[in-house]
Predict the structure.
Amino acid sequence: MSDVDTKSSEAAPAAAVTAPAGVDLRPSGGHADGSYGRALAAAREARGMSPSDVAAQLRLHVRQVLAIEAEDLAALPEGPLRAAFGGPDSTAPPC
């Protein structure tokens, strides 16, 4: 027999995402034109974060964060990150 504790542990529920005051997390970002790039930049700025702060937390390069905020998906490398945003040549369905 093993000395490993076999008690089942329940996973903690995911923390709810809350926006700072004045930041709208709806898909349109609260912008009339539905710009997700401006919504992400506004949320970052409302938290007092720089693009390099966000890049470090997300493990991205600063240029990738800036490309996402500028909605320049062609500047993102091919693969899951580009597909997540529905970039050119992505196989991800539109949201």
Observations:
- The CA atoms of residues 45 and 51 lie 9 Å apart.
- Helices lie at 36-46, 51-58, 62-69, 80-84.
